[in-house]
Structure formats: C-alpha cells, structure tokens
Amino acid sequence: MIGKIKRVLLYLFVSSFLYVLITKFVDPPITITQLTNAFGLGLKRDYVSWDELGYQSKLAAIASEDQLFAEHIGFDFDAIEKSLRPKKKNKKSKIPLGGGASTITQQVAKNVFLWQGGSYDKYIRKIPEIYFTFLIELIWGKKRILEVYLNVIETGPGCFGMEAAARHYFKKSAKSLTPAQAAMIVAGFPNPKKFTASPMSRRVSWRYPQILRQMSNIDTDEDIYTLLRK
C-alpha cells in the first residue's frame, strides 16, 4: 500500500513538473475556469506575447492586485498575516477594510493548474496551490508569470485575458489601452461577470480611479520599472 502511494505521488510530481516546464514556453491550452465558461457564456480569448500586452495592462494589474509582485517569492506574508486578523468594519459604510492575500503568482497557480472553488474546498486546494506557486516562481520567473496571468485571467463575461477584454470593451488591442481603460478592466477582476467596464458597473466606476492613482505611485518603483521595461 505504501509503495503504491509513493508511486502515485512520484507520478503526480513528475507530471506536474513537466507540465510547468512545458508551459514556461507554451501557452496553457485551456483552464478549468475557461472550460466551464465555454458552455454558458462562450469563450473569447486571445493569447498574446509580452510586448503585445502593453505596458499599461501590466502596470494596472500590479497596482491593483499585487504591488510587491516584483519583490516577493510568490507569497506576501504580511498580507497573509493581516488577512488572518479579525475583520474590522468602517462604521459609516459597513464595508470590511483590507483586501485578500493572494499574490499574482498564487492566482496563476490556481487559474492555470487548479480550479476556482468556493469556501468549502479552499483548504483542500491550498496545498497544491502552494506547491504550484513555488514551482512557477522557480521555473517561470516573474516576466512569464505576469504574461500568463494577463492572458488567462477572467476579464469579462466569457472573456479571458487583457487582449480579449480590450477588444470586447474598447475595440482595440491590449497594447493600445490607455491607463484609464486598463484600470477599468482590472477593476472588475474580483467578479468580471458582474463588474464590467462597459457598461461601467458601479464597482468599476468607484475602483478604477484608485487603481490609476496607484499606477502613478508605483510607476517609478525601480523593481517594477525594471521588470516591465525589459
């Protein structure tokens, strides 16, 4: 019995390692999230290269989702520690303060290699998510992680990737997006089926000016500038 378990674990490790290695150079053919959407909302996606994604798309994603992306090793431990504290509420708005702790790398690990789940299975998914997060940081590197993220992330009803969203919402390429347009798309990431850039949902109209300010703030950060300009 122990021998069979060892063989299964070895097979899982070797196959997952090979798949991560292959997807360093080849775009993931399809994700579970894309597959489930294809039967309802359809599937609009256009994988494009690093250069074709454009500077503003990359900057908006980092500004909104993971400002320490260029520095951490896949996990933002300060954010994780903060997320474990009891949530405080603003007495006026009753809106919980603070955001999630998932980095861009963790989101890629979940979106590409695992599945989108609810609260009931998040602890089951956490161990393989940690494994794949370490693995893609080691094998892919930051540039490839961000490139894949911006190609596979859900960006609208049936849309995946910044290129598909740019075509859907603004009739242009991702590379041609203005800072405001990139921020509008990224502002809908928490629930892109509901939070749309056009017609602009209430959440996007409130959130995208904040992302624009953060884009301006981090644009001169040396680590981010080096990553995005190379």
Q: Helix proportion of residues, in percent?
A: 55-70%
Order of neighbouring strands in the sheet with most strands: 1-3-2
Radius of gyration: 18 Å
Tell me what portion of residues adopts beta-strand conformation: under 5%
* Broad structural category: mainly alpha
CATH superfamily: Biosynthetic peptidoglycan transglycosylase-like
Number of domains: 1
In the CATH classification, which architecture applies? Orthogonal Bundle
Number of helices: 12
Number of strands: 3
Mind telling me the CATH class?
A: Mainly Alpha
Description:
By secondary structure, the chain is mainly alpha-helical. The chain has helices spanning 2-22, 32-38, 50-53, 55-65, 77-83, 104-113, 122-139, 142-152, 162-170, 179-187, 202-218, 222-229, and strands at residues 44-45, 154-156, 159-160. It has a 3-stranded mixed β-sheet with strand order 1-3-2. A hairpin with a 2-residue loop joins strand 2 and strand 3.
Task: Give the SSE layout.
Blueprint: H1 2-22, H2 32-38, E1 44-45, H3 50-53, H4 55-65, H5 77-83, H6 104-113, H7 122-139, H8 142-152, E2 154-156, E3 159-160, H9 162-170, H10 179-187, H11 202-218, H12 222-229
Parallel strand pairs: 1-3
Antiparallel strand pairs: 2-3
Give keywords.
230 residues; mainly alpha; Penicillin binding protein transpeptidase fold; three-stranded mixed β-sheet; 3 strands
Quick overview:
The chain has twelve helices and three strands. By secondary structure, the protein is mainly alpha-helical.
